[in-house]
Amino acid sequence: MFELAERLRKLPPYLFAELDEMKAKKESEGVNVIDFGVGDPDLPTPKHVVEAMKKAVEKVENQKYPSYAGKYEFREAVSNFYRRRKGVEVEPDSVIALIGSKEGIAHLPLAFVESGDYVIYTEPGYPVYHSSAIMAGGIPYELPLKEENGFLPDLDSIPDEVARKAKIMFLNYPNNPTTAVAEMDFIKEAVDFCIDNKIILAHDAAYSEIGFDYRPRSFLEYENAFECVIEFGSLSKTYNMTGWRIAYALGNEDAVKGLLKVKTNVDSGVFNAVQEAGMAALNGSDDVIEENNAIYRERRDRLVDGLKELGFKVEKPKATFYVWLRVDMPSMEFAKQLLDKAGVLVTPGVGFGKSGEGYVRFALTRDVAVIDEALRRMEGVDIV
Ligand SMILES: Cc1ncc(COP(=O)(O)O)c(C=O)c1O
Fold it and tell me: Of 90, 242, 311, 319, which residue is least crowded by CB atoms under 10 Å?
């Protein structure tokens, strides 16, 4: 009876909803599906964070409306975390709390994009860059990520007309789904490009702490970055807190203020108790981050070594908890055959954008015994 607005009709179906349907069908046929699809950590939130939450819910002042920008102490904890982990000085006043980084990414274009403005982002990529551009009435401009360029975009390929009319460029390193990382030379190039063209560089750093013998870079390590960069960080993957919905944005003052103005009109902040739990995580020992990374490293090694034994050509990723595997058939076909013949679910790369075609993504969110079982099941399947 009610027709959806054009902006919603323009959006593709949410990628993971389709995958869930495929999986449910298989399970209804009695198959115990091994799911490497969704990037949701299987590991628990650290105990001291859960304990901090229990105490925080009891406090009456935490049961009231939170502040829009977030508690000062939470923003200070983010500031201290950046000093400790990234060597970057950020004033707590340049930090705001978010209800997950997805929320901040989705709202940012509403603050800055007028109808007819471009929003530049890379593909394959997190689907929310595209949908947030559409919801704000912007024109999406996709930059392909190619293996031969280390999955970094070619900024010189952006037409002048697009650069002139672009308001936001989303970049994401360590990258989901390609697992690529960005070094300082690329970061400087991207920041300088955005300053020259008066574009907000929105850096999605959701995987900022997941690296193996590698320390992922904050874009704010480059001193000019504060002229154009808003960086999104999240406790979701760093501390196994996807369900808690807590993240932060920081960096360029105008960008952060603009996002906060949207949020002030849409939501009423993050539950204070969740912010206190977030403070316990950010101010706590970094050992929990290293322990997580050790677990992902073992899984990564087991999966990549096993895939190589099966005949795939694949490298060990330096960062993120994904493995991005090149396959010899259309990615959807590969995923369907793997699900059908082995009961193993992976995400077809094409779901992240057209340049993801020919790849599938494994999330390392299953333990080594399950990875071993998946590899065993794949042995007999003729899709290598
Ligand atoms: C690249 C990327 N950005 C952002 C997010 C959103 O994370 P959250 O909203 O839990 O902070 C995700 C989650 O999977 C992601 O993969």
Answer: 311
Q: How far apart are CA 28 and CA 96, in angstroms?
A: 44
Distance from C-alpha of 126 to C-alpha of 171, rounded to nearest angstrom? 10
Angle of helix 47-58 relative to helix 272-283, nearest 10 degrees? Answer: 150
Task: Provide the residue type at 98 as one letter.
Answer: L
Q: How far is CA 297 from the centre of its chain?
A: 19
The CA-CA-CA angle for residues 170, 178, 310, to 5°, reads 170
Please tell me whether residue 53 adopts helix, strand or coil conformation. Answer: helix
**Residue 383 alpha carbon to ligand 1 centre in Å:** 30
Tokens 């955005």 identify what position?
194
The verdict on the CB of residue 176 being under 6 Å from ligand 1 is yes
- Report the greatest alpha carbon distance in the chain: 60
Instruction: Give the model confidence (pLDDT) of 2-11 as tens digits.
Output: 999 999 999 9
272-283 and 72-86 helices, crossing angle to 10°: 20
Measured by CA distance, the residue closest to atom 3 of ligand 1 is 206
Task: Quickly state the pLDDT bin for 21 (edges 50, 70, 90).
Answer: confident
- State yes or no: pLDDT of 17 exceeds 80: no
The four Cα atoms 369, 312, 146, 248 give a dihedral, to 10 degrees, of 0
100 lines ligand 1 (CB under 6 A): yes
CB of 238 shorter than 6 A to ligand 1: no
> Helix, strand, coil shares of the chain as percentages rounded to 5?
50, 15, 35
Torsion angles phi and psi, residue 102, rounded to 5: -55, -40
Residue identifier of the C-alpha nearest atom 6 of ligand 1: 102
Q: What is the pTM of this model?
A: 0.96
CA of 206 to the centre of ligand 1 (A): 6
Three-state DSSP state, 136? coil
DSSP string spanning 84-119? HHH-----GGGEEEESSHHHHHHHHHHHHPPTT-EE
